[in-house]
Specification:
Elements: H1 6-16, H2 20-25, H3 27-37, H4 41-55, H5 59-71, H6 76-90, H7 92-106
């Protein structure tokens, strides 16, 4: 395997933990998508949170998206509202798996029994397509 540039490794590592400076570097793509969507920042942030929950996104994905939504004026109560609204559509295992990630992204304490996911969502189901437990 060829040598990998340090910048590539640093970017991937930063993304894997939701490092703000790396995520902000990719904000250009987000802002372009925001403009193309025709939605205001709040609605865009809420829709993207719903998509993360539906996709059973990895924990780091929630950090940047919740920060974007909060910057757009989305409240913690509205974040909960998104989870409640999509729960019946995506299933309880995904909703349960998303809850501690949303708490962490909001900077709120997580219940002791809600350990960080490591490839599996709540109730022991696989974390999503192409991911193994």
């Amino acid at each position: 395997m060829g040598e990998v540039k340090t910048e590539t490794v640093d970017t991937l590592r930063g993304l894997s933990v939701g490092e703000p400076s790396v995520v902000e570097g990719l904000m250009g793509v987000l802002l372009e998508n925001l403009e193309d969507s025709g939605l205001d920042r709040r609605a865009h942030g809420l829709v993207r949170l719903a998509a993360l929950i539906a996709l059973d996104a990895p924990p780091a994905a929630y950090l940047g998206q919740v920060a974007f939504a909060r910057d757009a004026g989305v409240t913690a109560e509205e974040v909960l509202g998104v989870l409640v609204a999509v729960g019946p559509l995506v299933g309880m295992p995904r909703a349960i798996a998303a809850a501690p990630e949303l708490l962490r992204a909001l900077g709120l304490p997580v219940a002791p029994g809600a350990a960080r996911r490591a490839g599996a969502s709540a109730c022991g189901t696989p974390a999503g397509p192409g991911r193994s437990p």
